[in-house]
Every structure is written in C-alpha cells, then in structure tokens.
Amino acid sequence: NKSVIFLKYPQEFPVPGEHFEVQSHELKIDLKDNDVLLRNLFISLDPYMRGKMRNTDNSYTAGFKIGQPLDGAGVSEVIESKNPAFPVGAIVTGMVGWEEYTVVAGAKGLRAIPNARESKIPLSAYVGVLGMPGLTAYSSLKIIGQPKAGETIFISAASGAVGQLVGQIAKRLDLRVVGSAGSDDKVEYLLKELKFDAAFNYKKGNILESLRAAAPEGVDIYYENVGGETLEAALEVMKLHGRIIACGMISQYNTQNPYGVKNLVNIVGKRITMRGFIVSDFAAESGADFARDVGSWLVNGEIIYKEDIAVGIDNAPTAFVGMLQGKNFGKQVVKIADL
Ligand code: NDP
C-alpha cells in the first residue's frame, strides 16, 4: 500500500520529500465487525489541508499527525467488508487516507453513492461539485450573500473548485458576475465558458484598477477566497450595505508575513457585513437542497464543472503544492485507480 506520509510542519509552501512523501508499506488487514477495506479511486486536494499541517489544536479540524498518512475526502470501492450496509462492490465517499487502500473502522462517515456504476455523473464529482466545495459555494452564497437579481458579485479564485460554482449560481440568480483569477487562460474560461460579465488576471497590473474597470458600478457581494491585496481592493469598491462572504484567504496560508489590509475602516462607513463560516456549519440547513439542485443542474447540463486530475498517488504531493500555487485549473483531484 502506497501512502503519502506527513513528515514535518512546513513554514511556507510544503515541499514534497521534505514535509510529506510517498512511502510503501505492507497492508495489514484485520477487519473487525462493521469495518470495511476500501480501494481508493479519487482523493480530493483542498486548501484547508494546509491548515492541518500546523502544530496547533486551535484549528477547526485536528492537525495531521507526523508519521501518519494525510487524509481527506475520497471516492472508493469497498473490496472487503464486515459491514452489511457497505457490501463488497459498493462505491462510497468519505474520509480516507492519501493512499491506495484504507481500512475504515466501523465504516465511520462513509456514504454510499447510489447507482455509481451506471450514472452519467463522473465519480470525481462527489469530492468536487457534488461534494464539499460544491456545498461551500451553494450554501454560503445563499445564506451569507443574500443575493438579489441585478446586484454585482465579485469572486476571487473564480476558476477554482468553489469559485466556478459560485459564479454559475450567481448567473442563474441574474447577478452581474465579476471574477479574478491568476492566468489569462483562467480568465478566458470565466468569460467564454462560464459567461461571467467581466473578469481579470490579478497578476497583471494593479488589482484595484482592474477591479474598478470590471465593476464600475461597485460591488454588492464579495466572495472572498484569497485575502490580502484583493480583499483590500474589494473593500474600496464595496457598496453601501455590501456583504463579504469570508470563505478563505489562500494568499495568507503559506507565508510567515501576513498581508496587513489597510482599509478595514470601510466596513464601518459602508455598513458592510463580513462573515466567516466553515462549510459544515451549513450542512444541515443546505445539504438536501444542495444535493437536489446542483445534482439536477449538473445532470441537465445547466452548469459545467472543470476538474484538474493528477494521475497516480505518486503525484499527489506535487499536485497539492501546485494547487496552493495556482497551477491547478479547476477542482484539483488525484485519480488513484480506475473503477
Ligand atoms: P481552488 O480550486 O480555487 O484552488 C486554490 C486557488 O487559489 C489556486 O488555484 C489559485 O488560483 C488561488 N491562489 C493561490 N494563491 C493565491 C494568491 N496568493 N492570491 C490569489 N489567489 C491565489 O481552491 P478551492 O476552491 O477549493 O478553495 C478556494 C478558497 O475557499 C480557499 O481559500 C479555501 O481555503 C476556501 N474554502 C473554504 C471553505 C470553508 O468552509 N470556509 C471550504 C472550501 C474552501 P489562481 O490561479 O486564480 O491564483
């Protein structure tokens, strides 16, 4: 069994071979009642995992343990089972190791994907558009954003796992949609494929000037994924009673020198609401609506979803660092095995 083992806490960007690496070890299988053995097909690589590479108990999820495999959401096939709810051959999603095979004690947290073998939906969707990033986009836009037709939304990291769905849902709600992303190809995807009204490459030119040009009438909702200079620019262009959906601040995850946002005072005069959240906060409230709505939009082709699929567990560490650096184009997953 090949696993990606956590070696050392990184200070800045994690480095494959130094902070985590692929190791081979013998698979010991001694299933107890209700346990299952999974053959992992896909694993999800997500920015929050960088937060688990810290030696702290303060995070909202427990940190990775040195010497242990990293873990995350996956899609897997049950290949041995002592659990009648998850028979051999079932396709499941849940938390697994970054590895080829995982024993899940008591099948804890697993969910079966019905008709997985016959469905038109690709299995990787269950860790992306139909999984955690999808629920993040769907629930927070509605609950925190309070979007209304005709309003303008600005989305950073707009071509990523969360951003591309936020943009498409906002279009469905008749908002004017503006996005930023880190390459010209990503900007073209936002404009041509996702039909954003305006988009810009934040790495070219001045962010505030680009944002002003893309949203001359100002911004009602800022969907915050990156923080730093982009947040500072958004605060300048926010309208009265604007809402900031504080989803993430990825520009701050791999640095020892956090960016000092200079203009928070805008929050006062403009009566801005800025609210953070963790997706699990909204699972009970939005989970069922999300699965129904996004599931049907996807099957009917009303939304599209771009994935960036690295192949092979050996490539997981490099793909993870690449995702933190913007080398991914769409939701980053690793395909470990074919069904
Ligand atoms: P993405 O698929 O968007 O991948 C991360 C992207 O971040 C990169 O592709 C890159 O895109 C962008 N990025 C990296 N560094 C910088 C930087 N210095 N400045 C600007 N952009 C940068 O990831 P997700 O969609 O999964 O996550 C997006 C955000 O949402 C993250 O902040 C994440 O932490 C957060 N999140 C929060 C959740 C919650 O519960 N609150 C749940 C899920 C995600 P580019 O090429 O455009 O720079």
State the CATH architecture of the largest domain: Alpha-Beta Complex
Bound molecules: NADPH dihydro-nicotinamide-adenine-dinucleotide phosphate
Count of DSSP strands: 15
CATH class of the largest domain: Alpha Beta
Number of domains: 2
Strand content: 25-35%
General shape = globular
Describe this structure in words.
The protein has 339 residues and is an alpha/beta fold. The mean pLDDT is 97. α2 (132-143) crosses α3, α2 crosses α8 and α5 (207-214) packs across α6 (228-237). α3 links the parallel β8 (152-155) and β9. Strands 3, 4, 5, 6, 7, 14 and 15 form a 7-stranded mixed beta sheet that branches. The protein has a 6-stranded parallel beta sheet with strand order 10-9-8-11-12-13, sandwiched between helices. It has 2 domains: 2-125 and 307-335, Medium-chain alcohol dehydrogenases, catalytic domain (Quinone Oxidoreductase, Chain A, domain 1), CATH 3.90.180.10; 132-280, NAD(P)-binding Rossmann-like Domain (Rossmann fold, 3-Layer(aba) Sandwich), CATH 3.40.50. It has 9 helices and 15 strands. The relative contact order is 0.16. The protein has helices at 48-51, 132-143, 163-172, 184-193, 207-214, 228-237, 266-269, 283-299, 316-324, and strands at 2-6, 20-24, 36-44, 71-81, 91-97, 101-104, 111-112, 152-155, 176-181, 198-201, 219-224, 238-246, 273-276, 307-311, 331-335. NADPH dihydro-nicotinamide-adenine-dinucleotide phosphate binds at residues 46-48, 133, 136, 157, 159-163, 181-183, 186, 225-226, 247-251, 277-279, 323, 326, 328, 331.
What are the main properties of this structure?
alpha/beta, Quinone Oxidoreductase, Chain A, domain 1, Rossmann fold, 2 domains, seven-stranded mixed beta sheet
